[in-house]
Write a structure and sequence with these properties.
Layout: H1 3-17, H2 20-27, H3 38-59, E1 66-70, H4 77-85, E2 90-95, H5 99-115, E3 122-124, E4 138-141
Parallel strand pairs: 1-2, 1-4, 2-3
Helix pairs in contact: 1-4, 1-5, 3-4
């Protein structure tokens, strides 16, 4: 399977694996069960793919390296998986501890087992405590 095919499969499996109802309730306390309707998930996917495409162009000239996503959650999954699976970069997703990070990590672990391919995980804690962080040449800050 090519890196692009592995990325596509990971993204599709992740979309099916995530508990969108539970995540919707975290994102919106009123009417949260319908917060991520099918068209919203599709919009999230399309936006993520556009970001991934732009990142591919921007990061391709760089030597191999690492990326740090601060405040990473649902909206950063497509570009982060693209970087990891297609560009072969080390990707560190950092967010606050809580049910959102737990659910994303649960879904990533399930997809990782299904594909037998290592995927990044959301890491919680101080940046100085993130194992293997080292130097990064791409920083993405969101929800900060």
């Amino acid at each position: 399977m090519s890196p692009e095919e592995r990325f596509a499969r990971a993204l599709v499996e992740l979309e099916y694996e995530l508990d969108w109802t539970g995540l919707g309730e975290l994102y919106c306390h009123e009417g949260g069960a319908s917060f991520f309707a099918a068209e919203d998930v599709a919009s999230l996917r399309e936006a993520g793919l556009l970001f991934a495409s732009d990142l591919g162009e921007a990061l391709a000239p760089l030597p191999s390296g690492a990326s740090l996503y601060v405040g990473a959650a649902l909206f950063e999954l497509a570009p982060a998986l693209f970087e990891s699976l297609v560009l072969g970069r080390r990707v560190h997703l950092v967010n606050l501890p809580g049910p959102e990070s737990v659910e994303i990590n649960r879904a990533l672990a399930a997809v990782e087992r299904s594909l037998a391919t290592a995927l990044p995980r959301v890491e919680c804690g101080d940046l100085g405590d993130i194992p293997g962080l080292g130097r990064v040449n791409h920083l993405w800050m969101t929800s900060v």
